[in-house]
Amino acid sequence: MRWCARADALFGVAGMHVLDGVREPDRLVLTVESDRDIAGCPTCGVLAVGHGRREHRVHDAPCLTVATVVVWRKRVWRCAEPACATRTSSETHPLVGPRAKLTSRAVGWAVDALAHDDTTVSALARHLGVDWHTL
Asked: Which of 22, 45, 61, 102 is the 20 to 30 Å CA partner of 111?
């Protein structure tokens, strides 16, 4: 396999695997993909066919004292059933909601920091590498 078990353990998200990690001066960029091999059409349930990948960039909880950006190479599936209204669909994962800008882990980190630490929304946004109104 092309996945690194140690990097996956550090990332800590079941079903996601780290392909690459780049440390930039102000952030860490992790490229990940899921290990899902097959999927059914969400409309009709027929076994879907792979139709490439699409990159979804989201901000994750800070790591190594810098903001973390996750580039998820999510699969696009094509329904093989000609009568189905759904032509293509994208895979989903609990870490990243549809059209999300933040991971569920980043949201949990921010909520916990607001509830228990003496901090501001703008400070949290700075740590996440986003504008304050994204939170």
From this structure: 22
Angle at 53 between CA 49 and CA 59, to 5 degrees: 135
**Helix boundaries (H) for the chain:** 5-11, 104-116, 121-128
CB 42 within 8 A of CB 82: no
d(CA 56, CA 72): 5
Residue (of 104, 106, 20) closest to 55 by Cα position: 20
Tokens representing residue 108 in the block? 């949990």
pLDDT band, very low/low/confident/very high, at 1 (cuts 50, 70, 90): low
pLDDT digits (tens, 9 = 90+) for 2-36: 788 999 999 999 999 999 999 999 999 999 999 87
pLDDT per position as a tens digit, 24-79: 999 999 999 998 778 999 999 999 999 999 999 999 999 988 999 999 999 999 99
State pTM to two decimals. Answer: 0.89
Task: For the chain, give every domain's residue range.
Answer: 5-134
- Could you report how far apart the first and last alpha carbons of the chain are, in Å? 37
| Amino acid at the residue 77 | W
> Between β-strands 27-34 and 66-78, what pairing exists: parallel, antiparallel or unpaired?
parallel
